[in-house]
Amino acid sequence: MHHLAGHPHIVRLRAAYEDSQAVHLAMDLASGGELFDRIVKRGRYTERDAAAAARTVVEVVQHCHSMGVVHRDLKPENWLLADSSEGAALKATDFGLSAFFREGQVFSDIVGSAFYVAPEVLRRSYGPQADLWSCGVMLYILLSGVPPFYATTEQGIFEQVIRGPLDLESPPWPHVSAPAKDAVRRLLVRDPRKRATAVEILAHPWLREGGVAAETPLVPEVLTRLRGFAGMNKLKREALRLVASNLPADEIRGLREMFEAIDADGSGTVTAEELRQALERKGGAIPREELERLVALVDADASGCIAYDEWLAATLHQGRLEQGDALLRAFQALDADGSGFLTPQELRAALRSAEGPAKGLGPEDDEELKRVLAEADKDGDGRVSYAEFCAMFLDDEANAAAAARSGKAAKATAS
Q1: What superfamily does domain 326-414 belong to in CATH?
Q2: Lowest mean pLDDT: which of 33-47, 127-141, 390-404?
Q3: Could you give the count of Cα atoms lying within 13 Å of 143 in the half-sphere of its Cβ?
Q4: What are the residue numbers of the active site?
Q5: pTM higher than 0.70, yes or no?
Q6: 25-64, pLDDT tens digit by residue?
Q7: Considering the domain 221-319, what is its CATH architecture?
């Protein structure tokens, strides 16, 4: 960090002190929060905003590479705002995994964060171009709100990074400009020799200063999550509700703040109209028919609006189900008799909870029960085991089995 000092977009290391217990690093204070938090607070977010943020990120990478430094851990959490002002400078931080490199040097140690790691890092043969892949992942997230290569486990993510398809067709990509998508493609090239360098991507028509990046608003992540929640079966929605109800307050603070911002009249609930206005402010216009359908699916108690606990379940990222013993706790809450299986009677109770007490179960819910059993009951015994319950959420069978074993071990330890 001393070596890189002087760049306006890198946090400066002021001094280092050592006592008998620790080394203390005194650095510039960056009090404005993380880059993505600022984007959410700004509300309206455009391609031009994404291009400006990405340009700063790549400029820092260019500076590092020109100084013979590879960062190796570029991710949104490592980009901070200097202060809370509107024009605050973006600052790169956390150089704990960075290293000096010589021209042509090849690294072999696997470092970095799963979503952002380059395929050549996983193959244990890489150089500074790995940082440009991470820039591409960040740009993809800036434009779409989700990572380009996703799975429910770290190993699954690695497999997607190495051979998974790059999706630039699903929503919101039809609304993203061709030059923006071209910039993403230039960075997310698996062969580092063909991947754009920092200098090359900074000259790209979309990314360069005064380039062609449009002011068209992008679809906000909250709408993506609401749509994903609406597409789940009722058992999955109920499991998410149970997980959300047990999360610590600090883990869901951002979702609470979003809810309170949307709840314009402070009623403690969000109406369809309040949600429509909030999405429009963020550039996520939605047809009224779809909006009403989403609200109806999220509105478990049939009150006509979305309560906070309903909002939390719908907007919580499904990845939270894989953390700790979240799936185990949800399963135990549904397994009323503690038998280790979800019987048809318990599944009916879960579907009733997901549908809301005011709605109850009708004939169509017999069909829903059949759909849940068809999806989850792999051995056809008419009930759902914990392993089958895990498999319903985790695509990879081996990882689902591992989660089930881990959950059973946790249950045994608790007993």
Answers
A1: EF-hand (1.10.238.10)
A2: 390-404
A3: 35
A4: 73
A5: no
A6: 999 999 998 887 776 665 556 888 889 999 999 999 988 8
A7: Orthogonal Bundle (1.10)
